[in-house]
């Protein structure tokens, strides 16, 4: 077991789960990840293995067929999976966010209907906030829902859905002005809809189209898509929580735990980059000795390992804060910001240690070098995290009088 990124105070059950996931990653993911990534191939066999392990139901309560584990357990599993291949952790993460939103905000009927099948992986989730013209400005959403009897009619275009093609349930945030007079703050007139669909591309149900996979620099294998709604009819009982106007808060709650997840992914990718760097440094020789014996390389390894440890500690702290029931947007923002930035730096240092070979597709570090940038953007850019952190700090340290 690695000396780095150890987590103290875990229960025996947590240690057993992590050991099982770590073995799965070492045996089933790492040996095939680069080949699948280069082909941009969906890792169906790996996903089937995760279903058998119960990973899709890790945080779903036992009463709905899940394992009922904590956010910390989940984040540590994600860290291990991302160490093997970050795309696989993305497949699990979007599913987890939708399940979490259902658990926290769904009606009793919605929980009974969706969660047991999500726990087995039979139903897999995706969620959608972003649109082509807005990026981080969620208040500028233009997709809308209009009430028509016992249904809503949804129209608009969404962007950057992870699992957009392979999912069968999408949580979509749209504007719904029903019951919200003109002049209502934008975030108070948004609603989350639970949209069931067939997996695949093209028209996946009347009024709903998934055009195809977006070709990306990295983060391959997992399908990232657009979603186009054109007269899509959704029954009123598929409004998350049963009432309109709550969607923004529901999504932000999901994104908050998602940020812990992205931090965990950053930790996992950075950890793998360190492993690759420290291994190659002991295999490559220059000037008559291992390059690991050169002080310049030892300095790099020292900095890389310290960043891995620091990011892991902040991620664990953010997860434990959320599990305690306390507000954790400050800790989650800090963890996501630090872990993604450190991940980029550790991967680049490992790339430099590899020298010219790091530029070759034969070496795993080349894949990590293309994957790390996604973490700088996912679940909010570094600039968004700094805004969240700054505002929360001013709340905590506000001058009196």
Order of helices and strands: HHHHHEEEEEEEEHEEHHHH
* Global structural class: alpha+beta
Number of helical regions: 10
**Total number of beta strands:** 10
Could you tell me how far the N terminus lies from the C terminus, measured between alpha carbons in angstroms? 54 Å
**Rg measurement, Å:** 22 Å
Percent of residues in beta strands = 5-15%
Which sequence of strands runs across the widest sheet?
2-3-8-7-6
The profile of the biggest β sheet is: 5 strands, antiparallel
- What's the pLDDT, averaged over the residues? 94
Please give the share of residues in helix. Answer: 40-55%
Topology:
Elements: H1 12-39, H2 44-53, H3 71-84, H4 86-105, H5 108-120, E1 125-128, E2 144-148, E3 151-162, E4 169-175, E5 190-196, E6 202-205, E7 208-210, E8 224-235, H6 247-283, E9 285-286, E10 289-290, H7 295-323, H8 329-354, H9 364-375, H10 382-396
Parallel strand pairs: 1-4
Antiparallel strand pairs: 2-3, 3-8, 4-5, 6-7, 7-8, 9-10
């Amino acid at each position: 077991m690695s000396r780095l990124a150890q987590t103290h105070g875990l229960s025996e059950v947590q240690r057993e789960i992590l050991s099982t996931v770590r073995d799965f990653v070492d045996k089933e993911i790492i040996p095939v990840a680069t080949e699948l990534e280069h082909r941009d191939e969906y890792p169906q066999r790996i996903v089937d293995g995760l279903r058998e392990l119960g990973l899709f139901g890790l945080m779903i309560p036992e009463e709905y067929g899940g394992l009922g584990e904590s956010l910390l357990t989940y984040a540590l599993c994600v860290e291990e999976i991302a160490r093997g291949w970050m795309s696989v952790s993305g497949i699990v993460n979007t599913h987890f966010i939708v399940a979490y939103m259902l658990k926290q905000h769904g009606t009793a009927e919605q929980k009974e209907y969706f969660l047991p099948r999500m726990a087995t992986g039979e139903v897999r989730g995706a969620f959608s906030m972003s649109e082509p013209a807005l990026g981080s400005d969620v208040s500028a959403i233009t997709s809308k829902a209009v009430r028509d009897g016992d249904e809503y009619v949804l129209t608009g275009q969404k962007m950057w859905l992870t699992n957009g093609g392979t999912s069968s349930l999408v949580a979509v945030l749209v504007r719904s002005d029903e019951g919200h007079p003109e002049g209502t703050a934008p975030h108070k007139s948004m609603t989350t809809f639970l949209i069931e669909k067939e997996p695949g591309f093209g028209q996946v149900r009347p009024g709903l189209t998934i055009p195809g996979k977006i070709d990306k620099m990295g983060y391959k294998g997992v399908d990232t898509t657009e979603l186009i709604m054109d007269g899509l009819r959704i029954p009123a009982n598929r409004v998350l929580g049963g009432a309109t106007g709550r969607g923004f808060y529901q999504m932000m709650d999901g994104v908050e735990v998602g940020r812990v997840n992205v931090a965990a992914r950053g930790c996992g990718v950075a950890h793998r980059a360190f492993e690759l760097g420290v291994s190659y440094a002991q295999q490559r020789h220059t000037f008559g000795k291992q390059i690991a014996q050169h002080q310049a390389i030892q300095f790099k390894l020292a900095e890389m390992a310290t960043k891995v440890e620091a990011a892991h500690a902040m991620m664990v702290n953010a997860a434990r804060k959320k599990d305690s029931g306390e507000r954790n947007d400050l800790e989650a923002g800090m963890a996501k910001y630090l872990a993604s930035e450190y991940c980029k730096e550790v991967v680049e240092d490992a790339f430099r240690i590899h020298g010219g070979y790091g530029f070759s597709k034969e070496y795993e570090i080349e894949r990590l070098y293309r994957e790390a940038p996604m973490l700088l953007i996912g679940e909010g850019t570094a600039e968004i995290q700094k805004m969240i952190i700054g505002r929360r700090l001013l709340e905590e340290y506000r001058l009196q009088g």
